[in-house]
Amino acid sequence: QRFHPKLTFIRSNKKDLKTAVEVRCQLVDQLKVLDLQLEQKSQQLQDLTDYLRRRSEMEGEYARSLDKLAERFTSKIKRKEPGSGQSVAQCWLVLLAQTRQESKDHSGVSDSCSTTLTQPLTHCLEITQRLAKRTKDVCSQLQDGLLKVTTELQTAWRTYYQYHSEYESAEGKLKEAEKQKQGASKKIEKRQCKVQEIQLKCTKARNDYLLNLSAANASMNKYYLQDLSSLMDCSDIGYHLSLSRVLRSYLSSRSRAQQNLSGGLQQLHTAVSGLDQIQDRDNLLQTHTNTFCLPLRFHYQPHEGDQVCEVSAEQEIRCEMETRFQQLQSKLTGFTQETEEAGKKLQAARSALLEGINSQVHLQFLSQSQGQGGSSESLASSSSRPSLARRRANLQETEALYCANVKEYLCKSSLVSKLQAKHDLLKVAVEKGTALTTSLLRVRSKSQPSVQYSHKLFTGDMLSFIQASGQEIPEVVESCIRFINLNGLHHEGIFRVPGSQGKVNSLRDAFERGEDPVADSRCDLDSVAGVLKLYFRTLENPLFPQDSTAQLLEYAQIDNETERAAQLKSVISSYPPPVTTVMRYLFAFLHHVSQYSDENMMQPYNLAVCFGPSLLRGAQDDDVVTLQPQINSLVKSIILQHESIFPSLAELQGPVYEKCMTLQQDDCEEGEGDSEHHSKEGKRGPAALVIFVF
Question: Keyword annotations for this protein (predicted)?
Fold first, then answer.
């Protein structure tokens, strides 16, 4: 029975991985279908061009044959004297005149097919291929965003399962202790505290999982029901219009030459009139139903015994949830307005592109018609060629603008879809929490004793400080990270927006005296973030030893992610274990911050820009400006691949970063439960959390 939750976790994990693999395969198939569609359109244009050229040859040969036939019999009539059958001769003259006219008509059809109709098809092929390539790039970016959402969902799901397993284990130990009532009251109290704390962590993890679950489903709906259609429209724009213009011109030429084939031409006219971009797109989707159908909705998978299936704003986290809801509501309003503006720009760009394509095709037909006239018309046609070249260049710029607007609109609307899903869940949770609780006060104990250090905290050597103080993670690092974890993961511009210099200096001096000034939740968030950066920036020796900077920057340029992570790990593993422990703790925290980039706008690269100069330094003669892009790229890679680069807990004992933190420090017995998730007792003063409910 103790191993049963783990077996359930393995089975659920396999099922979730199977779903993720199916979605990934489906996305790959979509790109293949789009490539196949491009090949089909290109082949259709090429086949139609070859058909017109061959038809031109046949029509020209037929016209020459008719002309020779008419000339032969005309010469015979001229050599003969008029006979008794004048009516017959007149019939011959009418017939020969009609033959000569038919020869001229077929010659005109031949010239039209060889030049006037084939050139627009060649330009249409170029436009179609460029649009398809750009559309595929946009589709790939959207798919990357979709895979990122599913990856975040799996990460949140695993975190939730982990904490719920810990909660069940702690609850079982509590029940065992309660059975042994004699002399175990203190032990029961400690275990009750632990159960409550783990339950709070489990609630936070479940909330993140549910939010990511809703965002993933919203992203799937948005991508499959809206984005795919928009991408296909982007790829096909102008294709049907160009074909329509070419085939209509062909119909006009044929109808002048062959009135007796009106029945067949009417059928072709009906087919040309039926060219419909929307209908073709729907037919493509219907033909490849398995590739483009919406996958099954992600369903909530609670851990065994967990009855909570909705986002909850309990007393301990209600304030945090309300703050997050307000920030999310503000961002949603702004992004919604931006999306509406992007939609208007997209429609304007689409109209401009269609107008440009139509105008270019019309001018090409006009120039070809002028070229078939006299010499004066040929001169006018040659003078209009620069104008055609300029229009073609402008058309390509319009194509690029349209594709950029499609990308902007789809990306912003996808972000709005995710934020709206989270917003709706948070709104319900906050309303319920407000109705159940009328007042909640959090008071943090400020009776923390001061600790005097024998080594400098700021501007000193971190390794010497750790060895002298016994703190595996320096107090300033752990306290600031805990404060940001509890209050600032959703704060827009965290680490990018500077705090007050006076407050930063005040916090620095308090830490230097051995105090914990961020125990007060009223501290300025940006100032706390500034102190954390200041600590690493002012260290006597940078966090990454200076003699390894060149090697790290070299390995960061490796394209293969697996090989790059292995090489970086080999260098970092050579550092002193206390330094590696701090690195592992810091980069796990930075990765956690980047997972909320939809709300705090701090992607891994933005975090790398903020922390890169504080963590790495080059040699004295190195150009800092030249090295900065390489340092940013290195720090970004470490943030994204921190789990592969830093040693695991089994390889290196020491504190690890927890995503779901609480204000209390663990005071459970040594060796009881998952001790690797908790700080060691006695290395820093406790910070108690007191909750009053009225």
Answer: Coiled coil
**Nearest 5°: CA angle at 115, between 111 and 116?**
90
Q: Is 692 helix (H, G, I), strand (E, B) or coil?
A: strand
Q: 307 lies in a domain?
A: no
The residue type found at 156 is A
Contact between 577 and 652 under an 8 Å Cβ cutoff? The reply is: yes
Instruction: Read off the amino acid at residue 128.
Output: T
- Mark whether 145 and 27 lie in a shared domain: yes
Q: Which domain holds residue 346?
A: 336-365+389-433
Say yes or no: 67 and 144 in one domain: yes
Is 285 inside any structural domain? no
Q: 20: which residues sit within 8 A by CB, 6+ positions away?
A: 150, 154
Nearest by Cα to 155 from 588, 563, 479? 588
**What is the domain count for the chain?**
3
Residue 283 CB coordination number (10 Å): 11
Question: Are 487 and 612 found together in one domain?
Answer: yes
CATH number of the domain where residue 136 is located:
1.20.1270.60
Query: How far is it, in rounded angstroms, from Cα 677 to Cα 657?
Result: 8
Q: Does 394 share its domain with 541? A: no
Q: What local confidence, expressed as pLDDT, does residue 381 receive?
A: 52
Q: What DSSP string describes 412-478?
A: HHHHHHHHHHHHHHHHHHHHHHHHH-S-EEEEE---PPP---SS-STTS-HHHHHHHH--SS-HHHH
Packing angle between helix 525-537 and helix 475-487, nearest 10 degrees? 150
**584 in Cβ contact with 642 (< 8 Å):** yes
State whether 428 and 466 are in the same domain: no
| Phi, psi (degrees; rounded to nearest 5) at 374 | -85, -170
Find out whether 135 and 231 touch, Cβ atoms under 8 Å.
Answer: yes
Question: How far apart (Å, rounded) are the C-alpha atoms in residues 509 and 440?
Answer: 32
Give me the residue label for tokens 């693999």. Answer: 21
Q: What is the pLDDT of residues 147-160, one digit of tens each?
A: 888 888 889 999 99
pLDDT given at position 297:
77
Q: How far apart are CA 253 and CA 109, in angstroms?
A: 6
Q: Which residues of the chain have pLDDT under 70?
A: 1-18, 79-87, 89, 181-184, 259-276, 279, 283, 286, 305, 307, 313-316, 318, 364-386, 433-455, 520-521, 619-625, 662-694
d(CA 529, CA 589): 12
Give the end-to-end CA distance of the chain in Å, rounded to a whole number: 41
CATH number, domain containing residue 483: 1.10.555.10
